[in-house]
Automatic annotation (TrEMBL), chain A:
<dbReference type="Pfam" id="PF01032">
    <property type="entry name" value="FecCD"/>
</dbReference>
<keyword id="KW-0472">Membrane</keyword>
<feature type="transmembrane region" description="Helical">
    <location>
        <begin position="76"/>
        <end position="96"/>
    </location>
</feature>
<feature type="transmembrane region" description="Helical">
    <location>
        <begin position="6"/>
        <end position="26"/>
    </location>
</feature>
<dbReference type="InterPro" id="IPR037294">
    <property type="entry name" value="ABC_BtuC-like"/>
</dbReference>
<protein>
    <submittedName>
        <fullName>Iron complex transport system permease protein</fullName>
    </submittedName>
</protein>
<keyword id="KW-1133">Transmembrane helix</keyword>
<comment type="similarity">
    <text>Belongs to the binding-protein-dependent transport system permease family. FecCD subfamily.</text>
</comment>
<feature type="transmembrane region" description="Helical">
    <location>
        <begin position="103"/>
        <end position="122"/>
    </location>
</feature>
From TrEMBL, chain B:
<dbReference type="GO" id="GO:0005524">
    <property type="term" value="F:ATP binding"/>
</dbReference>
<dbReference type="InterPro" id="IPR017871">
    <property type="entry name" value="ABC_transporter-like_CS"/>
</dbReference>
<keyword id="KW-0547">Nucleotide-binding</keyword>
<keyword id="KW-0410">Iron transport</keyword>
<keyword id="KW-0067">ATP-binding</keyword>
<keyword id="KW-1003">Cell membrane</keyword>
<keyword id="KW-0472">Membrane</keyword>
<dbReference type="InterPro" id="IPR051535">
    <property type="entry name" value="Siderophore_ABC-ATPase"/>
</dbReference>
<dbReference type="InterPro" id="IPR027417">
    <property type="entry name" value="P-loop_NTPase"/>
</dbReference>
Length: 316, 258
């Protein structure tokens, strides 16, 4: 009973947070403040869905609860790509490609990266999770170093553009971009929703899934592609979110107490959205823009990640 | 009947299977025996299509399995690997319900529910129905997984060391259940088993493997002989017959076998 209350209560809490976010100290200014806030709220909803969905499905496929797509180097690749763009095309790259062009190119690039990961690491179903984790961390570090190297080469003006890419923020998204992102996410979810029972079976592991008639290779490929698209959307829309996925996924498991993705996926998305709104509310009304959403989210999630590592076998 | 034809499996420089030919008769309990590293599990995984042979093919009723869709195959052959472990909190009933996935794709019909109940009854798991898997003993867990493969309602069941880590009572329970599946439900069961006495007491047919090839195959009477087992395992065997069946004794060798 308590579980049901907390599981459904979270929807109410997030709805209240959203209403608070839109109307708090807005002076009911429907011409400027409220439309701007609704744009930010839309970005948070899209980003939340991306993060909740991608982390949970990624953890199901890898059969591990301390992995997130971010750790697998997706975000590092995105940042390197932005740095290379600025290095070769200069500050004009932002204008040249337009934010939509950049957005689409990033999505394609991350899809390619996901395909490579799948080819190298998940071949023959030999996905040793610790090996995956190690490769992911090393890749993130190596690519991060490349990015820093590129950053040393660019001018201070260009550097500040790069800097803005590396912090999560809801202010950069343009309405048109939000529309494209929203449509893409809706598409991904539509494809994903039809595979929810298959995802449940995939969580039994490769061998059992094949034995139950799931085309493992095809499904894993499909989900890695969906994850790549979602990570690409959230990263190019909001910036890197690092550990947030782990936090969201594990909080979801604790609340949902079921393995069924029909329950966990929506719950995960709502938790991510709630976390975003709460952080943004704090930034806007308590810290008065002296800190960023990224820092707040990473502080909470980084702490939680440490706790998770220390407490080797959690109860959930 | 499942037959395998000239199967080779090579990992890099290591040859695991070198030209395996064997057949597994229908409606019989067949066990794969042999020393560690003989390739028993590898062969079973190829029949289950969890691994691809380097060359050669597996046929089910004369048809090459490589051409059958995975979804279809799951309605004919069910596989249980040793100790599937995953960090999910599942009840016994939920595990058994997974066995219906090849048919229902996640939405259980009334017919599915009936088959689930039957599988649970068949292994007398009614009392554990709503228990969580992580609260069960190893033997009870194994029974729950076996119920899942039974609920899959396939003609063929492949089990990889189902008796591993079980106490003798659970081991006997599992073997008796498999025997009943063959006799009462006309299923074909193929299992990898290490305890030679379980193979000798419960099986109809035995395929003995050694160093990546079939050492000998045939009925229990043909395979379970002192000379054949002695050479297969490199141990001195004494086989005694009693009214309750035969017993292979290899615990205290009288002389060093070659």
């Amino acid at each position: 009973m308590m579980r049901l209350v907390s599981r459904h209560g979270i929807w109410g809490v997030v709805l209240l947070l959203a209403l608070g976010f839109v109307f708090l100290r807005s002076g009911l200014d429907f011409d400027y403040i409220i439309p701007r806030r609704i744009a930010r709220l839309t970005a948070m909803v899209i980003g939340g869905i991306c993060i909740g969905w991608s982390s949970i499905t990624f953890q199901t496929i890898t059969g591990n609860r301390i992995l997130t797509p971010a750790i697998m180097g997706y975000e590092a690749v995105y940042l390197l790509w932005q740095a290379l763009l600025v290095l070769f095309l200069g500050a004009g790259s932002v204008m040249l490609l337009g934010s939509n062009g950049n957005f689409l190119l990033s999505v394609l690039l991350l899809l390619g990266y996901s395909w490579l990961i799948h080819r190298w690491l998940l071949r023959n179903g030999k996905s040793n999770v610790y090996f995956l984790l190690l490769i992911g961390l090393v890749l993130t570090m190596v690519i991060g170093t490349f990015t820093q190297f590129v950053q040393l080469k660019v001018s201070p003006g260009e550097f500040s553009i790069l800097q803005s890419f590396s912090l999560a923020s809801f202010n950069r998204a343009q309405p048109q971009q939000l529309l494209y992102a929203g449509l893409l996410v809706a598409g991904v979810c539509l494809v994903g929703i039809r595979t929810l029972p298959t995802l449940d079976v995939l969580s039994l592991g490769r061998d059992q899934a094949i034995s139950l008639g799931v085309d493992y290779r095809r499904n894993v490929r499909l989900h890695l592609a969906l994850i790549a698209a979602l990570v690409a959307i959230s990263t190019s829309l909001l910036g890197p979110t690092a550990f947030m996925g782990i936090f969201v996924a594990n909080m979801t498991y604790a609340l949902a107490r079921t393995f069924r993705h029909r329950v966990t996926l929506p719950l995960g998305c709502v938790i991510a959205i709630g976390l975003f709104i709460a952080a943004q509310l704090l930034v806007e009304h308590v810290f008065n823009y002296k800190t960023t959403v990224g820092i707040l989210v990473n502080l909470v999630c980084g702490g939680y990640f440490l706790l998770l590592m220390v407490r080797t076998r959690g109860a959930s | 009947m499942i037959t395998v034809h000239d199967i080779h499996k090579v990992y890099g420089a290591k040859t695991v299977l070198r030209g395996v030919d064997a057949h597994f008769p229908s409606r019989q309990l067949t066990s794969l025996i042999g020393p560690n590293g003989a390739g028993k599990t590898t062969l079973l995984m190829m029949i289950a299509r969890l691994m691809e042979p380097t060359s050669g093919e597996v046929r089910i009723e004369g048809r090459a399995v490589a051409g059958i869709r995975v979804g279809e195959y799951a309605k004919r052959v069910a596989t249980l690997r040793q100790a599937p472990d995953f960090n999910l909190r599942l009840t016994v009933e939920e595990v058994v319900a997974f066995g219906r996935f090849p048919y229902s794709r996640g939405v259980l019909t009334r017919e599915d529910q009936r088959v689930i109940d039957e599988a649970i009854d068949f292994l007398s798991l009614q009392a554990l129905r709503h228990a969580y898997l992580d609260e069960l003993s190893g033997g009870q867990r194994q029974m729950a997984f076996l119920a899942m493969t039974i609920a899959q309602q396939t003609d063929y069941l492949l089990l990889d060391e189902p008796l591993n880590n079980l106490d003798i009572k659970h081991a006997v329970q599992i073997m008796r259940a498999l025997r009943r599946l063959c006799d009462e439900h006309a299923r074909t069961v193929i299992l990898v088993v290490h305890d030679i006495n379980f193979a000798a007491s419960y099986c109809d047919h035995i395929v003995a493997m050694k160093e990546g090839a079939v050492y000998c195959a045939g009925s229990v009477d043909e395979v379970i002989t002192e000379s054949r087992l002695g050479e297969l395992y490199g141990l001195d065997f004494e086989i005694t017959h009693s009214p309750r069946g035969r017993l292979c004794n290899y615990f205290n060798p009288e002389r060093e076998a070659k």
